[in-house]
Automatic annotation (TrEMBL):
Keyword Repeat: yes
Organism placement in taxonomy: Eukaryota, Sar, Stramenopiles, Ochrophyta, Bacillariophyta
Species the sequence originates in: Fragilariopsis cylindrus CCMP1102
Protein name according to UniProt: RCC1/BLIP-II protein
Keywords annotated in UniProt: Repeat
RCC repeats: 23-83, 84-157
UniProt-listed Gene3D superfamilies: Regulator of chromosome condensation 1/beta-lactamase-inhibitor protein II (2.130.10.30)
InterPro entries, alphabetized: RCC1/BLIP-II, Reg_chr_condens, Signaling_Regulatory_Domain
Amino acid sequence: MKSPLFVDVAKGTQHSIGITNDGTVFSWGRSSSMGKLGRDNTETSFTIPGSVPFPSDDIKVIKAFASTSSDSDSGHSAIIDDKGRLWMAGCDRWQQLGLGSSNGGSTGYTWKGGKQWQDRFLVSQSVTELMNKDNDDCSGIRDVALGGDHTLVLSSDKESVYAYGKGGDGQLGFVGKPFVSAPKRSPNLSGKNIAAVCAIQSCSMTIDDNGEIKNKVGKCRSSLISDGIMRCIENARQHGLILDKTIVN
């Protein structure tokens, strides 16, 4: 089988997601555990690119994101389609997929049949609900970042960061460091002129137009985190979210 030609590839620590020119999605990785590939392995091994199924053939994907989980038995994925919808798959143990209502509170929702993962991409409407509630002029999502067990979503107005999932290390930027949270606007990450968001394991940060760090929360001190920051900033530059490349010490 001929390998597909990708116009963009989201590289996580355990898996990758590729997008072709026509908006088709492929996934592959070290394992398929907890559904992070958004597909099964009946037709294609998880170690090579395999097509990701969707409810209908008219869904075209324009952006993809893969988590930075160091645990091979974890990990989650996100995509944005050409209609601006956010889809998520993978581990949902800490509700990092945000599949419940924005009114769900700290517990968010319960899993059907006790299944703490989703092996198919599902639309996550809660963040969109919050964006529309907070700002009528917000036109959608600018950026997404997936940490080890949490998710960050940046609004198109470059001001609001929504965070959800595991938060015990302060990575959600909420007062009190809740152990787990449904999607909410993060007071410590939101602000003005945010160009991109980064999430590396239990660390979260915002980046300005010049590629410099604005705010940082969570456990962010290690060489692994520093390397992740560099990759995130370079990725933001390649996708036109920041103006130029900046070296971070």
